[in-house]
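ok here's 2-isopropylmalate synthase:
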Amino acid sequence: MIKILDSTLREGEQTPGVYFSPEKKLVIAHFLDQIGIDIIEVGNPAVDSDIALAINLISQAGLKAKIGAHSLCKIDNVQKALDCGIDFLGVFFSVSKKRLYQDYNISLEAAIEKIVEVINFAREQKNDLLIRYTPEDTVRSPIENVIAAASAAVKAGVNIISIADTTGYTNPFHPQRSIFNYVKTLKEELKKQDLYPQIEVHCHNDKGLALANALDAYRAGADIIDVSVMGLGERAGIVDLGELLINLREMGEEGNHWQLGYLQDLYNFVSEHSHISIPPHQPITGKNAFTHYAGVHVKAVAKDEMLYQSLNPQILGKKSSLALGMQSGYTAVELAMKQIGRAELAENKDLVAKILQEIKAIAKRGTPIDIEKELPEIVERCNIEQLMT
Ligand code: HCA
Ligand code: CU
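and the structure:
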């Protein structure tokens, strides 16, 4: 059974300009818990005392999800995280050539020693702590370095190894860069040493492939997938929570377990407090995700919605809707008139034609027509004009 780690409160808060107060983090954590998220990664308490406060608050909220902190590979960072009452700890340290020799200036052996020391420390402090080690920029690091660091980390007490595609480098169709192959190889290599950690994947969206790569990793048997609300995160962000859950659901994962009816409220809350709007055409949670517009579409969905949908909005506690504008036809006008309580006038074909003409003219202003607010007045005006002729 696949597990989901949500990092809206850690990676998501690495979106420039985004800050969620501890109280808002708690609300977001409640939503995530209601949806059925397994691990909520909150942040690094060494970064700011508000993050420590948030982890404390959320850890004490009695949620089903495991509550975690992110930590540098440093004893004092780990201690700060442990002081917040966490169930989960994520430690990262890269073993890529560039990082080892151009940035940290240490050998692989020294890096592994450091990783082992920090993991040992965390394990000694808390026996039932779920510990993850991430060789940051995993997929651009020499595989032998990753295997050496990962196996040492597992032997020191790590439960999870995360494959981080820190820069959005992988591609399901690239002969050398598929995360599918990476998951398979890492599992096989660790199995040779009789090591069976859970494998997590963290896919960045720099080239728009985060979701595709996450599903590729799922197909290869990854155990945990990282996501965030709206895919928030550094640069182009990571995998979008709603999009991943819907796709996994269609593949038979956890269909009845995830409470997808909470997604829209969660997205609205995160959007409001991150000051980042949800694009109207965003799958699942965008305003237009289930809105039908062009004449042919509206006419068809009036008979059967699924003629232009492959996802039933009811799964999300939502309904489909229609939009009016340049592309509209008679059916849309009739349906919209019924929607605003003017069904009796919708019988009048000449009036419907007049209203349609009027709507097309208004639509040329280039912004959406508000059915509830604008249509009553348009209907009224056209009706009076028609009665007078
Ligand atoms: C970061 C980088 C990170 C870490 C992922 C992890 C990445 O610290 O911001 O610790 O599992 O993309 O590699 O998000
Ligand atoms: Cu990341």
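+1. The CA atoms of residues 316 and 385 lie 42 Å apart.
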